[in-house]
Write a structure and sequence with these properties.
Length: about 325
């Protein structure tokens, strides 16, 4: 009964942990209005934990630039049209450079960040900086660092947008929500995967060790090897399911999460090793205990005054 409960709990933990791979910052849309439409159109799927953060923000800004160029309002003045075109050119240079801020202090996993601690400025902030100066951008940052456009109560923002042929709605469409420091790393390892690996590795090493000790003692207990086969299979499946998919960046270079790739191969290797050892402990025949054999030839009188001979053989199992 205890073995069944252990197997059930182990299975439940693995499935929950595997589900955590997708429960991350990347399930939060990159934009409050457009969501992840840009990434879906570009890749045919929604972003996940393995999605490169820089590529995701770039995809959004490229998409917004294209949409705004196609949908210029008809009631703009000549000056506004000229300024709007310059704004979109600036936006193009911004995403092409790829120096984006990070959510360096807000508790939400993904949030707008006007200017981060390293001085990296957001897309809308960059447009303000290039047309109105860095001082105004920093002034907005002091009061509205992690605010969405709709939350920024600064009349000058609306005036600036109108002067440059943009609406506040279009500014909100431009504004990305950025991920935190840890989650923007190409070699980020999901917490669920790390915990599952630690639990299964410790369990499998312990089971293999116990099985080896019992084997050396000649103990017929089959509990540890049986659980070891299941646990080893679980870890190997975990490694296969969590193996990261590679992708090509904007320059055509092949990219992959190397840290998660190594961890997945470790899971596959440890799991397979545990299966092999546990199977050996179950299937290998029990070694016979060492014994000592003593024999003796002796004589005895037989009928007719003749002498008979006898042989005695005695075997003793030795205990250590």
């Amino acid at each position: 009964m205890r073995k069944k409960i252990l197997l059930l709990l182990l299975t439940l933990y693995i499935f929950v942990s595997c589900d955590q791979f997708g429960t991350s910052v990347n399930r939060t849309p990159v934009n409050v209005i457009l969501g992840d439409a840009s990434f879906l159109l570009a890749h045919g799927r929604f972003p996940d934990e393995l999605t490169n953060e820089e590529e995701r923000v770039k995809s959004h800004l490229m998409f917004v630039e294209e949409q705004l160029r196609r949908s210029s309002p008809s009631d703009l003045s000549a000056r506004q049209r000229t300024n709007r075109s310059k704004m979109l050119d600036l936006l193009h240079s911004y995403w092409n450079k790829g120096e984006f801020p990070k959510n360096d202090g807000h508790p939400d996993p993904r949030r707008p960040c006007f200017i981060d601690k390293e001085g990296n400025i957001c897309a809308v902030g960059f447009l303000i900086q290039e047309t109105m100066g860095r001082e105004l951008a920093e002034e907005i940052n002091r009061d509205y660092k992690y605010s969405y456009i709709s939350e920024i109560d600064e009349p000058i923002l609306a005036e600036w947008a109108k002067e440059n042929g943009l609406s506040l709605m279009e500014c909100a469409m431009i504004q990305p929500a950025y991920s935190g420091m840890g989650n923007s790393d190409d070699n980020y390892i999901p917490t669920g995967l790390a915990l599952s690996t630690a639990l299964l590795s410790g369990t499998n090493i312990a089971l293999s060790t116990i099985g080896g000790i019992e084997r050396c003692k000649g103990n017929p207990n089959r509990g540890a090897p049986t659980v070891g086969i299941f646990s080893g299979t679980s870890q190997m499946v975990l490694g296969v399911l969590s193996y990261p998919a590679g992708y090509a960046d904007f320059n055509g270079n092949y990219m992959i999460n190397e840290s998660q790739q190594v961890l997945s191969m470790v899971n596959i290797g440890v799991g397979l090793g545990t299966i092999i050892l546990s199977s050996y402990y179950l299937l290998a025949k029990k070694k016979p205990k060492p014994s000592a054999t003593a024999w003796n030839i002796y004589g005895f009188p037989s009928p007719g005054n003749q002498v008979g001979f006898g042989l005695s053989l005695r075997t003793k199992i030795l205990d250590h």
